[in-house]
Predict the 3D structure of the following.
Amino acid sequence: MDKHPQDTRVVVGMSGGVDSSVAAWLLKQQGYDVIGVFMNNWEDTEDWGHCTAAEDLADVQSVCDIIGIPHQVVNFQKPYWDRVFSYFLEEYKRGRTPNPDVLCNREIKFKELLHRALDLGADFLATGHYAQIQQNGLTVQLLRGADPGKDQTYFLHTLDQQPLSKAMFPIGHLHKSQVRELARQAGLPTATKKDSTGICFIGERDFRVFLSHYLPAKPGEIRTLAGAYKGTHQGLMYYTVGQRQGLGIGGSGTGEPWFVVGKDLSRNILYVAQGHDHPALYAEALLATDLHWINSEPPTACEPDGAIHCTAKIRYRQADQSARVYLQPQATCKVVFDQPQRAITPGQSVVFYNGSVCLGGAVIEQTAAVSTPAVAVR
C-alpha cells in the first residue's frame, strides 16, 4: 500500500453484525478514513415472517456513532432482484439447491458496493468476511481466514483480480472469539448479537412459506430407486440431496432413516433411499460448470493426464477433500475425488484450494462416473 492510512479512504460494508462492526472499528483505530455503508438489498414490506433490516440498520447507526465515522444507506434492491434472487428462483425451478451468498458477493458486494465505494473516493472496500489477502508478485491471492471454523473463502471464490485488488478483510487474521472480545472492549452494541444464519433475504421466515410466495408448489410421489411408492412430497423445490427431515415416511423398511437421493423433474418424483450410508448417496466424481479461477488462469496441471491436483469442498462446512480437476471446454470441468463424497448437490459450489490459497471453483451440475477424462482443455 503506497499511501499512509490517514490518506487512505476505506468504505466498509456494514451489515449490523459484530464482524463488520469490528472491521470498521479496527480500520478506524489504524487511522484510516472510514465510511460505513449499509446495503438495502431487500424490500421489507411483507406482512408475513420477520425481516431484521430495520434492526440491523439501527445497529449500524449506533456502531458508527460510537466509532466516530459517517455512514450511508445504499439501495441495491433492483440489482439484487435481477442478479441474485431471480437466479435463486430459476435454480429452484430446476430442482436444484443454489447458494445465493456466492452470487451476492460477486454481483452486489464486490460489484455494486465496490462501484459505490469508488464513487465515494474510496481506495478500498472492506467487509467483515473471515478471509485474507496476499500479494504474490503481480497477483492477488485469496487466503483462508485464520479461524478454520469461520473461514468464508468458499463464498468468495468467484471474485477475480480487480475486486480483490480493492478488497480489505480486517478481521481475517482473527478468530471469532477475538472479534467478539474486541467488540466488547470497544463497547459496541453488536458484541453479543447473534450471528445471522441461513439465506439473507429469508431471515427468520419459514423457508417453505417464503418460497411458496414466488413458486407454485407441485406435490408428487416419493419413490424408492426400485420404484416402490413411499408417500407424497410437497414440491421438489423443498428438498435437497441428502435431506432427512420433513419426508414423513419414517418407520418403514429396515427402520433406518430415509434420505433424498434424487429428483425426476419430468415426472415430479422424489427418490429416497434408506440409511445414512446408502450407496446412492455417494459418488466419486462430479461435473461442474461456470468454472472460475481467481488468478484468471488455471494452475499448471501436475499429472500426466492433465489433471490439476488440489483439495476441494462441495459445501461450506466440509473438510478439504483430495481431488483431481480435469478441465473441459466452455468453462466446465470434471472433479474426481480420492474418496467418495456424500450428498453431492447440484446448484451448490465446488471450491478448490492449494493449502491456504483459494484457487477458484465452479457450480455443481451432477455426479459423474469415474472414467478417465480426456486430456485437459486449456
